[in-house]
Amino acid sequence: MIVAGLTAAIVSIAAATGITSPVPKDAKPPVACTVAFDPKRDPLERDSLSVTLINNTPDAIEFFSTLPAGILGFLDVNVEGPDGKRVSPEFYDAMISSPFAPPARLVGELDPTKPLKISLWLARYAGKPEELTPGKYRARVKFSYSDRVAMSDWVTFEVPSGRK
Fold this sequence. Notes:
alpha+beta, three-stranded antiparallel beta sheet
């Protein structure tokens, strides 16, 4: 009840003074992430998954890291099996990188005029292709750097029975 009253009071004050919200409701996030499969390739082939990072800010975003994984260290490739359970480790590339080695170095830049495209081998994150059970899988990528986080939509793929 108190929170509702305070919210109403803030809205009234904002309306009376002409103060608007600093972030418009339809504002784009600072960074967007999309994923897509190459339709001409098997989803588990090398470089069949394309990740695109888009900078929606007016300035370039520089990425610094102490890990040798480069920009891949900021990606969490989430693959879920037919049972809906995650089969990929979280932030795999950061996890397998050598220990931290300061000082941080520039590992990439996201220009506001040019999206960054990264090709991934999905099987690297999902496990050995020959060990995957047949069925429908889905994948999405989360980009996380400092206070900039972006999540792609899910994309689906199928592992047929009898796959070798």
